[in-house]
Amino acid sequence: MIGLTTYLEQARQGVWDVRAAFLPHVYFDAVAASGGVAVLLPPQPNPELAASVVLDGLDGLILTGGLDVQPELYGAERHPSTDPPRPDRDAWELALFRGADERRIPVLAICRGLQLVNVARGGTLQQHLPESMGTDRYRLGGGVFASNTVAVDDGTALAGVVGAGELAVHSYHHQGIDRLGDGLVVTARTDDGLVQAVESTGDGYLLGVQWHPEQDTEDRRLFAGLVAQASRYAASRSVAAPPEREPTLEAMP
Predict the structure, then answer these.
(1) pTM for this entry
(2) What are the DSSP calls for 92-149, one per residue?
(3) Which of 93, 173, 174, 212 is catalytic?
(4) Fewest CB within 10 A of the end CB: N or C in the chain?
(5) Looking at the DSSP assignment, which residues form a beta bridge with residue 165?
(6) Active-site residue, 111 included
(7) What percent of the chain has pLDDT over 90?
(8) Does 214 participate in catalysis according to the annotation?
(9) Which residue, 117, 132, 45, is CA-closest to 82?
(10) Has 93 been annotated as catalytic?
């Protein structure tokens, strides 16, 4: 059971124009193609309480892409190019990630998800790469994904999934990691030095990638890797759970 975070967006269907949970189908197609069951997780009004309930039923979590994380969360002034704040989603995903981290639920963080994980661990972001790095190679605009090549470090969990060395990826972001968060290690970069992937230095399974693997229907390895880890987590949880006791005569009315 794999949870995927979503937006609450205004959506139109026929005569209806209402707020609805929104996530491109390529995400849950990738989970289903990898043997997982996808469950959508829209923001909740009480994120801490809701996350504690939701996580009890999940075996894996995907923090999906989307609009920019609020710079106020990492103590920075808002850049003119930064997206309008979405505090409902930020609060929800922070609660989900922290709860999953505590439970050692496997996590795959994609694009915005990677940035949110970095912020949750005390890191910061570059708010506009065309200004800070002088390049627009990571976001072409118009819904067109850019093609980039990242170098994956050998001996990392990421290399164990996709192999070490060069990997062609789909990019659509104008922000990136600046100061790395606590308990994270960089596992891939582009040739300009920008962080493209991180993983946890702890014993939990946490992979974060700055690119969009859901856009590559020919390569589901990151999703298959998460589903495999989620299966192990589910198995360990079932072993750890105490067996249900049959009712005894003394317990019967």
Answers:
(1) 0.92
(2) HHHHHHHHHHHHT--EEEETHHHHHHHHHTT--EES-HHHHTS--TT--STTPPEEEE
(3) 212
(4) C
(5) 152
(6) yes
(7) 86
(8) yes
(9) 132
(10) no
